[in-house]
Design brief:
The chain is built from nine helices and two strands. By secondary structure, it is mainly alpha-helical. It has a single domain, classed as Arp2/3 complex 21 kDa subunit ARPC3 (Orthogonal Bundle), CATH 1.10.1760. A two-stranded antiparallel sheet has the order 1-2. A hairpin with a 6-residue loop joins strand 1 and strand 2. The longest helix is centred in the last third of the chain and has 41 residues. It is globular and about 50 Å long.
Length: 246
């Protein structure tokens, strides 16, 4: 792996460690209430429902919906824990090939940094503006999370494989934006409907996102199969043309 990629991964890991240190310093036994434990367990299940992006050695899961809801309902430490735990499940659960420790470390660090940044940005920016809007908090948190998540992943692939960052980020954003957009809308509606207090209403996000996950997974499979079919037809046409020329 190029030295630039290793240095970049070390910076992301150090940033995640700093965030986790803050979480550990502020953690109290009250953080492990029954409501949070139930929400955390559901978030881990959601992390196992993942989709591999075409052209990328990475996956996305519906855990980000729980992260966005966590920004509205829970503390900084609890929300970061949802992101960190979800990253481990997403990296280790039913993988096609056994992931390398450095890959698991980077994925966990990446989601930790994205979660922490989204929480700080959404809460901090609104506090500075003197606003108390749950909808605005969700929108800002979702924007920061999506941009950072796609950006951090695209940059590490660019440095490791020498590919164009612009093309990678554009492709990653193109594949993930509809998924993130629908997920953010569902998370926002659930949080606003519950007014941040009724967890039962918020948990209605689970069946909604499951159907979104199934549909999006089928959509990606269909697109991949169509691309393979188009390539096969082009190869057959090229061979036929070569045979006629011969």
């Amino acid at each position: 792996m190029p030295s630039q990629a290793r240095a970049y991964m070390a910076i992301v890991a150090a940033s995640a460690m700093a965030i986790l240190t803050v979480v550990a310093a502020r953690w109290t036994p009250e953080n492990l209430g029954r409501v949070f434990l139930l929400f955390f367990a559901l978030a881990m299940v959601a992390s196992a429902m993942k989709i591999r992006l075409p052209g990328f050695k990475t996956t996305i899961s519906i855990n980000f919906v729980f992260i966005l809801i966590g920004i509205a309902l829970f503390s900084f430490g609890e929300t970061v824990l949802i992101g960190f735990g979800g990253a481990l499940v997403q990296s280790l659960w039913k993988t096609q090939t056994r992931p390398k420790p450095v890959q698991v470390l980077f994925n966990a660090a990446c989601l930790t940094v994205c979660t922490g940044a989204a929480f700080w940005a959404s809460h901090g920016a609104l506090a500075m503006l003197g606003l108390n809007s749950l909808a605005a908090m969700m929108v800002l948190g979702a924007c920061v999370y999506v941009v950072m998540n796609t950006g951090l992943v695209s940059l590490v692939i660019s440095l490791a494989e020498g590919r164009s960052l612009r093309d990678l980020w554009s492709s990653c954003y193109e594949w993930t934006f509809p998924y993130f957009l629908v997920g953010a809308a569902v998370a926002g509606l659930a949080s606003v409907a519950s007014h941040g207090t009724n967890l039962g209403v918020t948990l209605l996000v689970v069946p909604a996102m499951y159907f979104v996950y199934v549909y999006y997974r089928m959509h990606i499979v269909r697109v991949v199969l169509e691309n393979i079919s188009n390539v096969s037809r082009e190869d057959e046409t090229a061979r036929a043309g070569a045979a006629q020329s011969g």
